[in-house]
Amino acid sequence: xxxxxxxxxxxxxxxxxxxxxxxxxxxxxxxxxxxxxxxxxxxxxxxxxxxxxxxxxxxxxxxxxxxxxxxxxxxxxxxxxxxxx
Length: 85
Hints:
By secondary structure, this protein is an alpha+beta fold. 29% of the residues lie in helices and 13% in strands. The chain has a domain at 30-85: Molybdopterin biosynthesis moea protein, domain 2, CATH 3.90.105.
């Protein structure tokens, strides 16, 4: 049917595609990830990048260094914020 969105293959949704909630391989939201970059952690928490880097430098916020990247695990971020999980 011309003009029908359902008949267009580029707009059809298949099982496991984003938006269906059936894909177990990738978390649906950033809050479900195992680790975050400093920028992502700052965005999620509402804290500044500078504060997070300062706390990492003081040893109050543990992180994992992979190459030149610093990743903050979800567990460490929750502990830092005092969130009960």
